[in-house]
Amino acid sequence: MRKQPTPLMLGDSDAPLHDPLDLLAGLLEQLASVLDTVTDSQYTQKPVGAVASSLGGHVRHCLDHFSAFCRGAEAEWIDYDDRERGTMVETSRAAARSMITELQQRLDKLDASMLPMTLRIRSVVSGDGQVLESTTSLGRELAFVLSHTVHHNALLAIMCGTLGVPVPDEFGYAPSTLAHLAVIACAR
């Protein structure tokens, strides 16, 4: 299982770079930590304040995207819209925790050398079911899953705040925002 993101040194740069797959694994760890702090009833509650969906619905949605990413690395084809809704992951924290463990194991089988790999992607682009197929790379899709998950984590953070549940300090913040905040903190 991946641990904390480990720095990689590329070229002659003195600046450490993180393995992007470790960054995805870190997001899974953050989701797991939130699962450990909510109750079963909080996990399935609908609505949560102004948000019509449940925490479980957002977690399931994010894990579906991780799963599609992992399948894409194996099959060289990604379809984020090919997912099951209303699964146990949406209603059971234990099922969500189990899925996180499975996804961590699948991510462990990937490495950064695979990121330039060319993939095909299929996306439903309109409400009438129109589909767009295109070419992409595993690295681009990693960036998408990272951004998509951060977006949903921000919604989860709002929902948890409504429920009085604490979340990790950096939960739901985009990497660019965290980098900006670090620059501001260093300037002080």
Into which percentage range does the β-strand content fall? 5-15%
The description of the largest β-sheet is: 3 strands, mixed
Task: Determine the structural class based on helices, strands and strand pairing.
Answer: mainly alpha
Give the oligomer, counting copies of the same chain as homo and different chains as hetero.
single chain
Q: Care to count the β-strands? A: 5
* Mean of all residue-level pLDDT scores: 89
Span between termini? 37 Å
Provide the CATH superfamily.
dinb family like domain
Which descriptor suits the 3D outline? globular
CATH architecture identity: Up-down Bundle
Number of separate domains: 1
Write down the CATH topology.
Answer: Four Helix Bundle (Hemerythrin (Met), subunit A)
What is the helical fraction, as a range of percent? 40-55%
Strand arrangement within the widest β-sheet reads 3-4-5
> Low-confidence parts lasting 5 or more residues at pLDDT below 50?
2-15
Output the helix-strand order. EEHHHEHHEEHH
Gyration radius, in Å = 17 Å
Top-tier CATH class: Mainly Alpha
Number of helices: 7
Structure description:
With 188 residues, the chain is mainly α. The protein has one domain: dinb family like domain (Four Helix Bundle (Hemerythrin (Met), subunit A)), CATH 1.20.120. It contains seven helices and five strands; from the N terminus they run E-E-H-H-H-E-H-H-E-E-H-H. The chain has a three-stranded mixed beta sheet with strand order 3-4-5. Strand 1 (7-8) and strand 2 form a beta hairpin. The chain is globular and about 45 Å long. Mean pLDDT is 89; it is low at 2-15.
